[in-house]
TrEMBL record:
Lineage: superkingdom: Eukaryota
Localization, UniProt: Secreted, Cell wall
Organism: Vitis rotundifolia (Muscadine grape)
Record keyword Signal present: yes
Keyword annotations of the record: Cell wall, Cell wall biogenesis/degradation, Glycosidase, Hydrolase, Secreted, Signal
Protein's GO biological process: anther dehiscence; carbohydrate metabolic process; cell wall modification involved in abscission; fruit dehiscence
Reaction catalysis annotation: (1,4-alpha-D-galacturonosyl)n+m + H2O = (1,4-alpha-D-galacturonosyl)n + (1,4-alpha-D-galacturonosyl)m
Protein name, UniProt field: endo-polygalacturonase
Length: 437
């Protein structure tokens, strides 16, 4: 499975030396991803085009895992002046507590069961301890004073350059995004939680809601798992993607519920070896690869598996979207074992994506889409077109497999249809309805 420079698994070493730790109760998360996953992906997708046989991937499940019974010690934000009354600005107390955590051998920062108000804050590494944990038991709520974001309008909670890092708990992170939604703008808009240049990261059990823009952003990170997270925002909240993956590798999103106003999961350029397993999505805009190639840019995404998902009332189902004029590729992507309920555009590829007020210019170049498998996808379509492949005339989609597809109209008196433009090497297997025409 995935290879890494941390072959000796420092988290496992740390925990095994900790009094009260029982390996059988807490198998090392990082140990499970330090093998040949990257090689496995490459082998699995090597012959994807026509001879590839999709398979159900049995991924590791972490819902049985707990927390080490005891740790070497803890740092509590209250001990550094945090009030936790939901009114007082606790930002400086959090900075002091993080500095102590990151610079010592303790490695565990605790947010107790109170309500903490924070301005934008950066938690930076590298840290001294081999293993760092942030335990969120209470609520962290964002300042709603837009002037507090003058120095960095892009980030509220930024975790930067941290290795062997676990963020977990039954607490809540509230982006307090209502004021931002009223002034919606994609450019320089604050994102709730960003993990940038992190390695060996686990985010588990949290409720993250009402983000200013994106809820969780994994950026230039390696060996990441988001497990059992709940991400929520109103259906009409603009640009509130659930999980956004950019420039990252070896990412798992497992057993999570995402109900927001934009993409439940969006995967963009520089991302490789991404797996979404047992995800419930809706409302929202579905699960998207892209958009890719905006502004004539090069974009590359490969080795993506979406497995055992359920989409409910979303404006798109599983989508690949690219702009005209771009270059690069989106390849080796599998969508399988998916249930759709009242979903518009359940299966869609759009190589002519244009998210702007004026019409986009016709261009010859495009991001190449190839090696895409749709298997065992069933349910109801809210749109007439249940399958829509709008591929480029100059760079048509290649190596598309449809297997065991059963999509019907949500309205009993209507028929679900399909349109498949500019697709090369299209193969159908088993029963496929509607048929691609």
């Amino acid at each position: 499975m995935w290879s890494s420079s941390f072959q000796d698994d420092p988290l496992a070493n740390f925990l095994e030396q900790t009094p009260g730790y029982y390996p059988s109760a807490y198998p090392s998360f990082f140990g499970t991803i330090h093998d040949d996953r990257n090689d496995d992906f490459e082998e699995r997708f090597a012959n994807l085009k026509m001879e590839y046989e999709p398979e159900i991937v049995d991924s590791m499940r972490y819902d049985q895992l707990g927390t080490p019974a005891t740790l070497l010690g803890e740092v509590k934000v209250d001990d550094y002046g945090a009030e936790g009354d939901g009114i007082t600005d606790d930002t400086e107390a959090f900075k002091k507590a993080w500095k102590e955590t990151c610079s010592s051998n303790v490695g565990v920062l605790v947010v107790p069961e109170k309500k903490y108000r924070l301005k934008p804050i950066t938690f930076s590494g590298p840290c001294k301890s081999d293993f760092v944990m942030l335990k969120i038991l209470g609520m962290i709520v964002a300042s709603n004073d837009r002037s507090d974001y003058a120095k960095d309008r892009r980030h509220w909670l930024l975790f930067n350059n941290i290795k062997n890092f676990i963020v977990e708990g039954q607490g809540t992170i509230d982006g307090n995004g209502k004021i931002w939604w009223k002034n919606s703008c994609k450019i320089n808009k604050t994102q709730a939680v960003t993990f940038r240049r992190c390695q060996n990261l686990r985010v588990c059990g949290l409720n993250i809601k009402n983000a200013q823009q994106m809820h969780v952003r994994f950026e230039q990170s390696v060996d990441v798992q988001a497990f059992n997270v709940m991400l929520t925002a109103p259906e009409d909240s603009p640009n509130t993607d659930g999980i956004h993956v950019t420039g990252s590798q070896n990412v798992q999103i497992i057993s999570s519920v995402i109900r927001t106003g934009d993409d439940c999961i969006s995967i963009v350029s520089g991302s490789k070896n991404i797996e979404a397993l047992d995800v419930t999505c809706g409302p929202g805009h579905g699960i998207s690869i892209g958009s890719l190639g905006e502004g004539n840019s090069e974009a590359n995404v490969s080795n993506v598996m979406v497995n055992k998902a359920k989409l409910i009332g979303t404006t798109n189902g599983v989508r690949i979207k690219t702009w005209q004029g771009g270059s690069g590729y989106a390849k080796n992507i599998v969508f399988q074992n998916i249930i759709m309920e009242n979903v518009s555009n359940p299966i869609i590829i759009d190589q002519n994506y244009c998210d702007q007020d004026t019409p986009c210019e016709e261009q010859d170049s495009a991001v190449q889409i190839r090696g895409i498998v749709y298997k065992n996808i069933k349910g109801t379509s809210a749109s007439e077109m249940a399958i829509k492949f709008n591929c480029s005339r100059t760079f048509p989609c290649q190596g598309i497999v449809l297997q065991d597809i059963d999509l019907v109209s949500y309205e009993e008196d209507q028929k679900a249809n399909s349109t498949c433009m500019n697709v090369m090497e299209l193969e159908t297997r088993g029963r496929v309805s509607p048929t691609c025409s």
